[in-house]
Amino acid sequence: MKKPLSRLLAGAAIAITAFTAAAADPIRIGSVLSVTGPAAFLGDPELKTLELYIEDINKKGSVLGRQLQLVHYDDGSDASKANGFAKRLIDDDKVDIIVGNTTTGSTMSMVPLVEKAGVPFISLAGAVVIVEPVKKWVFKTPHTNRMAAEKVFEDMKKRGIAKVALLSETSGFGQSGKKETEGVAAKYGITLVANEIYGPKDTDMTPQLTKIKGTAGVQAVFIFGLGQGPAIATKNYQQLGIALPLYHAHGVASEEFIKLAGPAAEGVRLPAAALLVADKLDAKDPQKPVVTAYTNAFNDKWKADVSTFGGHAYDGLMLAVEAFKKAGGADKAKVRDALEATKGYVGTGGVVNMSATDHMGLDLSAFRMLEIRNGDWSLVQ
Question: Given Cys at both, which of 169, 231, 271, 277 links 260, Cβ 3.0 to 4.6 Å?
Answer without folding.
Answer: 231
